[in-house]
Amino acid sequence: MKTTQQISQHLLKGKNKWIAVLVFHAIKILVFGTLPAHGQYPGAHYYVPENEEAHFYYHNYALVDSAIVRSGPSINSSFEGYVRLGQRIKLLDAKESKETIKGIKLLWYYCEFDGKTGWIWGGNISSRAFRSSEDASELILCGVDHLESDLKTGSSALYLQMKVLKNGKMIAKKVFPSPGFMVENIGRKGLKGVHDMFVFHSDCESCGCIVLNTYVTWDGKEIALLAKTQYIGDAWASEGQTVIFPSDLEGEPNMLKIRYDLVDW
């Protein structure tokens, strides 16, 4: 499968219109609509939203191999044991304060593992886990990887990781910039060769904030970035990209459409 750097792109410009046709693996991506004012697509940097926290669940999985479990909620606490990559653990409690490791500030969680209890840092466990729609023996883990800071702007970019495990062994991994921790598996959406499609998005509920989305696919062999979109709306107007999949009413076979919409209420 071609990487995003290897995608061939053809840009056709017209009067206040633009069309971009991208060939991604066997999937055509059609981008069309009014040219955005900034003249870029998608034209957004992915920064860590303020006060956003990874969404951890009652049962989680170890995101790294030999993840250390400690006697207390601190990197300085004594060693209690470790959990292997993909091992399921039960979260019992969380410490109110966070600790910064690898540039990311996350909570420590009190957990149960192998008949014992201890504390594990949030960056070492998955924030979400899925079973592949195509092969239930494939466990797909999502979680934080690292944070990159831009000294010029003072902003920070969040990088997440996705790992696919089969029979306890990792068969694929991808690290990529993400708008936030929130993710859902939206299925194949009619795209041939795609087993699962995940959309990572930022948490935005107020008027005027930008909703950012990153679409990631799994085809049974490789994790790949498919598309990025952004959307902004308030009480009077909205603009941004709308993704149209083959399974949608306006969809076409094995083509992903990204339409730019500008609505003035």
Question: What would a concise description of this structure say?
Answer:
By secondary structure, the chain is mostly beta strands.
Estimate the global geometry from the Cα principal axes.
globular
- Global Rg: 20 Å
The beta-strand count equals 19
Describe the main β-sheet briefly. Answer: 9 strands, mixed
Strand content: over 45%
Give the averaged pLDDT, no decimals: 76
What is the strand arrangement across the widest sheet? 1-2-3-19-18-17-16-15-14
Q: Which stretches are low in confidence, meaning pLDDT under 50 for 5 or more residues running?
A: 1-21, 33-55
- Helical segment count: 0
Distance between the termini: 42 Å
Can you describe this structure?
The chain is an all-beta fold. It contains no helices and 19 strands. The strands form 4 sheets. It has a 9-stranded mixed β-sheet, with no helix packed on it. A hairpin with a 2-residue loop joins β7 (88-101) and β8 (104-113).
Please supply descriptive tags for the structure shown above.
265 residues; mainly beta; 57% strand; globular; disordered N terminus
Describe the protein's topology.
Layout: E1 8-14, E2 17-24, E3 27-34, E4 59-61, E5 67-70, E6 79-83, E7 88-101, E8 104-113, E9 116-121, E10 128-131, E11 138-150, E12 155-166, E13 169-177, E14 182-185, E15 196-201, E16 210-218, E17 223-233, E18 237-244, E19 255-264
Parallel strand pairs: 3-19
Antiparallel strand pairs: 1-2, 2-3, 4-7, 5-6, 7-8, 8-9, 10-11, 11-12, 12-13, 14-15, 15-16, 16-17, 17-18, 18-19
